[in-house]
Amino acid sequence: MVDIEEQITYWRTGALEDWSAALLLIRGGHVRFGFFAVHLAIEKALKALVCRHTNELAPKDHNLLRLAGNAGPF
User: Fold this and answer.
1) What whole-number distance in Å separates Cα of residue 31 and Cα of residue 27?
2) b/e per residue, 12-27, with b = 16+ CB within 10 A?
3) Any alpha helices (H) in the chain, and if so which ranges?
4) Least C-beta-crowded within 10 Å: which of 21, 43, 49, 65?
């Protein structure tokens, strides 16, 4: 059986790590890769919200709009 709280922690931790990396990259002048890391951070944060809202595993989807739609009301 899957522990949803563990999944939420997994996605949130990854989002925070990617956000930190994005800041370092952008401040270091690597804007394109920094924005890619921002995208990853947002995706992982949304997946945490999807897990919280649905009480299920996050989908294997990278579409931020679709993930946001599944994340429930904010």
Assistant:
1) 8
2) bebbeebbebbeebbe
3) 4-27, 31-54, 64-70
4) 65
Total residue length of the chain: 74
pTM for the model = 0.92
Residues 20 and 51: their CA atoms lie apart, in Å, by 22
pLDDT, tens digit (0-9, with 9 covering 90-100), for 3-42 = 999 999 999 999 999 999 999 999 999 999 999 999 999 9
Backbone angles phi, psi at 62, to 5 degrees: -115, 5
CB 60 within 8 A of CB 42: no
Q: Which two structure tokens, joined as six digits, stand for 8? A: 């939420």
- In angstroms, rounded to a whole number, what is the distance separating the alpha carbons of residues 15 and 25? 15
Every domain of the chain and the residues it spans = 4-70
